Amino acid sequence: HPPTLPPEGQSTERQRRTSYRTPPTVSARRPREKMRVSTLQVLWHDKKPVFSVDFNKEGELVTCGADKEVRLWRITEKAKGTQGSQGNEKGTTTVAPGGAEPVEVGVEYLCNLSAHSKGVNVVRFSPDGNTIVSAGDSGEVVVWRKRPGAGGSLGRDGTKAATPSKGGPDQAADPWAQDSAWKAVGTLRGQTDDVQDLAWSPDGSALVTGSVENVAIMWDATRHKHLARLDGHHHYVQGVAWDPKGEFVVTQSADRSCRVYAPKPQKQKRRRKQDQQQDAAKQQQA
After folding, report:
1. How far apart are CA 68 and CA 62, in angstroms?
2. Per-residue model confidence as pLDDT tens digits over 63-112
3. What is the C-alpha to C-alpha distance for residues 234 and 140, in angstroms, rounded to an integer?
4. CA pseudo-torsion sign 109, 112, 113, 114
C-alpha cells in the first residue's frame, strides 16, 4: 500500500524530528563607540624586566626591576598639539575616548632611588603616599621617605631638586636640602632570602613581607623593628595582603595554601580583660 500522506499543512513525526528551526531575527544593534588606546612604555630600567609598580594618591607612579633601581614617574595629560610644561616626558600617546577631543598622555620621569645591590622585586607606597618600601633579592628591604614639603622641579640630571630650607647658612646642615625629594631612612633587617611581596596595614603603622624562606614577617613601619614572624608554610611565600580593617593578614604560598593570621592578638586580649573588669565593676555597683 502507498504511504498515507499527512493532511495539507501538517508534517509527520519524522519530519518534525529532522527539521531545523529558523533562527530568530536579530535586531540591528547600535554600533559601539571606538576608543583608541596605546600602551605607555617605561624603558628607563636599562631594558631589563620591570617587576612591580604602584600609585599614590598624588598620581605618582613608582616602578622597580632587575636593574636594582627604584624610579618615580608622573602620568601627564594635555590637549593634543599643546606644549608640555616639562621636557622630560616619555611614551607619549593619543587617546580619544567616546569621540572626545584627543589628548596626549605621557610619562614624566621624576627621580631615581638607588640603594639596592640586587634586583628589586616589589615596591609599595604607604597609604598616605609619603613613604615607599622596596624589597628584593637577598632579603633587602629599604624604607624611603618623602622630604617634608617636597616641591621642587626637575634638575639637569633628571632628578627632582629639593626646595632649599629656610635658615641661610644653616640650610647646608639639613640632610634633605641638597638631596632629591626622597631619601632612604632605614632598612628592615630580618629576611635573609629573596622577598617576593609586601603589604601595608591600612593605617600605615605596620607592614608585612613574604619571602622564599617560607615565612612572612611583620614590621613596625615607624621604628623599623621586627614585630612577629608568621610561620607555617612549607614553600615560598609569594603573596601577602592586609584586610581593609587591619584585623587579619593573609599569606599565600607555593605549597598551595593560604594562611590567615590575627596580627594583634595581645590587644584583643587586653580589650577582653578590660571588658571583663568593666562588667565586674558594674555588677558590684548593682
Report:
1. 13
2. 999 999 999 998 887 766 655 444 455 544 444 555 566 677 788 888 89
3. 22
4. positive
